[in-house]
Design a protein that fits this description.
This protein has 11 helices and 9 strands. By secondary structure, the protein is of the alpha/beta class. The protein folds into 2 domains: about 10-250 and about 325-335, Spore Coat Polysaccharide Biosynthesis Protein SpsA, Chain A (Alpha-Beta Complex); about 255-320. The protein is elongated, with a radius of gyration of 25 Å. The two termini are about 20 Å apart.
Length: about 350
Amino acid sequence: MAKRPSATASKTVAVRASKPSTARRPVRAPKVSVVVPCYNEQETLPAFADRMTAACRAVAGASYEIIFVNDGSRDRTWNIIETLSRGDPRIVRVNLARNHGHQLAVTAGMSIVRGDWILIIDADLQDPPEMLADMMKLGADGFEVIYARRRARADETHFKVATAKLFYRLLGSISEVNIPQDVGDFRLISRRIADRLNAMPEQDRFIRGMVAWLGGRQTEILYDRDPRYAGETKYTLSKMIRLALAGLTGFSTAPLNLAIILAFVGIAMGFAIVVYILIGYFFGQATRGWSSLALITVFFGVGQFFCIAIMGAYLGRTYMQVKGRPLYLIDEIVTAEPRKPRNG
């Protein structure tokens, strides 16, 4: 039994590789690590594992690892991951104590990677594992981040496509960081970028924005996103809204500036109302009707609530950060040799 890795993990289980002679060899960092967050993906995991394993072998031979992170799935996802790992010592299984969400599941996997290059990919097969070869070629050219830009989205509703485009355009217009548009978390990053990403402690994580903030030589690769292999999308409207809020409040102070602008507009309108009242008083014209008064009251009421909502969003981020809770809780890590998470 390996030593407990940290306060964020309850236990780490080391298992012997299928070939004892391989287990006795000196442990060398693999060339490629693949981080795969999984939430209720029992229908897609076998097919994904086959394609991802073939893609890794094509570019790295036997020097790779695939880290499956079970994010509190309610179906047979964890059982399938266990079965896959028993048949392949290069498969690492990580079981989170509960559902922490996609971004923290990726973070949990990133904390134990050992590869020189790290691929982040979902298990739904919308992002083709075979693109790893083209990404590695760009990495060999000196790029440290190769992110996949979606050229087309198959079988996605017009509402989702439209809202995604609106979000990325809005984020790009107000963000203090150049965050690529139409890009998810599907990307290949170097070891240096991965270490810097692991050192970032923030709770409300927006990984695609965090990687953009880290800088380095970054480039894109275009692809057509495939439809889901099976099952239904796990990104509900509420989850997309939370992710959008994390991006907007995590990489821009524009909402705070908007509150300031509204405050000055309110002051200017208040001054104009005072001037209007004084002119009416000196010229003997009484203001009649309640419509204008009601309109002004509603305007200022909405403005105040809007400002409070914006400040509340930032206050909420501060509240979550200063509590200092672990980013995630790992119940179990099963791998060919013990390893320690870098953060948590």
